[in-house]
Amino acid sequence: MSEVFSHEPMSLRRMPPAVKALIVANVAVFALSYLAGNGFYDTFGLVPRDVLGRWWLWQPATYLFIHGGFMHLLFNMFALWMFGTPVEAQWGARDFLKYYFLCGLGAAAASVAMSPHSGIPVIGASGSIYGLLVAFAMLYPDAVIYLYFFIPVRAAHVAILFGFIEFFAGTSGATPGIARFAHLGGMVTGYLYLRWWWVVKIRAAASLRGMGARRSPSFPSPSRWRRPARSRPKPEEGEQPQMAEIDRILDKILANGLDSLTEEEKEIMRKYSDKRLQ
Length: 278
Prior knowledge:
There is one protein chain. The protein is mainly alpha-helical. The protein has a single domain, classed as Rhomboid-like (Rhomboid-like fold, Up-down Bundle), CATH 1.20.1540. Helix content is 64%, strand content 3%. It has twelve helices and two strands; from the N terminus they run H-H-H-H-H-H-H-E-E-H-H-H-H-H. Strand 1 and strand 2 form a beta hairpin. The termini are far apart.
């Protein structure tokens, strides 16, 4: 049976242990970075040129705890609390932390692969946070997330929509100050881990020890991940016509995959992604 979770006013005492430890560590490192100066970012941020050329192999882990400003830290910690609380409640602290850092490493690998000669530090926990969004969407695909705080959208749709936005923003170079491919790397790493590796691990454990020998963290089957919703939240009036079409396209992706989209539908998604970036 899964543990029960609820979102109550943010309190360190009520937070699950892994989420609490990550938030405390991020806040502590943020304070330390202000005392240490700019050299701190070059040493402990993710600098692809230094990772490959100087073998500074601690950077793919340490960059996750460094943020460039208070709002950067605030939004990442809010998302960590929002998505991390239910995911850790399902999996437990150990598996949650393993997944969190795996997504962070996947985001780092994507950044290094896309810009191997860059000397600009990549910082922030966003790669892991985007991985948590994928995990939340797979665990609770019909949960309602209020996009931009007022548009109700299913969690599964939010994950796909953000994937589109990060892809189009990364390929177009619309926001050069944001590591879009790091975000994508975290999402793809999380999805592949949950969609393939975890299934293999559970089946192997079942064949060796028998079903029920050990409680495995739960996540929905592929059929549930693809199943269209029976009901949808109603968008706000001003966004209703556009969001209804976006919602239909996202349901089509869930049911039949990205290749099922027509060129017109792909263009609609591209324009919507561009609009969200403005």
